[in-house]
Design a protein that fits this description.
Globin-like, mainly alpha, 69% helix
Length: 122
């Protein structure tokens, strides 16, 4: 079976999607403050590697766990469901702009949703 990563278009497609996604994130008043002072080149790289793994394009992810990566945001900046939803909305918008098929968007969002409790440290 072909991985979601491959069905989305592989490395080039993920690279483009991550760039567009963060353009939306950094323009979104609800969540852009979480990225103040963050090295966005490094952040985009982390996100590309994570998505490649999460979508079945790589057998492992060398980065921190979702819990560890977001702990400070929860504890010090009150990262919440509202913010998680805003991120998911921006991802959906990005994928629609890239003309990704709705069934693939649904698969992506199911994977995103599966990380909610870890991201929010619950």
């Amino acid at each position: 079976m072909t991985s979601l990563f491959e069905r989305l278009g592989g490395d080039d497609a993920i690279h483009l999607a991550v760039d567009k996604f963060y353009d939306h994130i950094l323009a979104d008043e609800r969540i852009k403050h979480f990225f103040v002072g963050i090295d966005m080149v490094k952040q985009r790289g982390h996100q590309r590697r994570f998505l490649k793994y999460a979508f079945g394009g790589s057998p492992n992810y060398p980065g921190r766990s979702m819990r560890e990566a977001h702990r400070r945001l929860v504890e010090e900046m009150n990262l919440s469901d509202q913010h998680f939803d805003a991120v998911a909305e921006n991802l959906t918008l990005t994928l629609k702009e890239l003309n990704v098929a709705s069934d693939l968007i649904d698969e992506v969002l199911a994977i995103v949703e599966s990380t909610r409790d870890d991201v929010l440290n619950r």
